Amino acid sequence: MKTIALIDYGSGNLHSAARALRVAANNAKKTREIRITADPSAIAFADRIVLPGVGHFADCAQNLRAHDGLVKALHEAVMTRGVPFFGICVGQQLLATRGLEDGETPGLDWIPGDIDRITPGGSLAVPHMGWNALELTQTHPILSGLGDDPHVYFTHSYAYRNPAQTDIVATTHYGEPIIAAVARDNIFATQFHPEKSQRVGLQILSNFVLWEPK
Prior knowledge:
By secondary structure, the chain is of the alpha/beta class. It has six helices and 14 strands.
């Protein structure tokens, strides 16, 4: 049976993400084992990888690096072998060059850019929490079939800044433009939470289950 490795490094919403992935795989008519793991050997044999993340960039980066061999296993799977990868919320942010929350913390630098505080201005609150329209800036298989005016669920205070324009596949607007999804080759990641985004989120995850990067 093909497996989806859901990375457990102490910084993710694992059970909600696992449930959503199971439903998404079922909707895609695919049988998949969702394996919650930080074991490098399990990652080495996974067919797909999902990196969730909730909270503070520096804490998540530290937790990721604290697991012996985990970053190396992820790099070999994703960057060397081309295993399809999905990052969620801080799991997206960790792909950047650096996070600027309470100082500077190195990220994985898989999709270069910075993670910085959002500045919506006016009476808009930070953190940004709630449903916002997803604006697709490029065609991508994982963003297909979302219907008219798709809305997804956000909860964050920081977001991507200054990635290459070609790496941005969706944005939203919350007092300012916010990068909602980035993608490059076999990597796809969202600032929003697909596991909390109901029909649209499940469609995105089903698309990921079916995705065969070129």
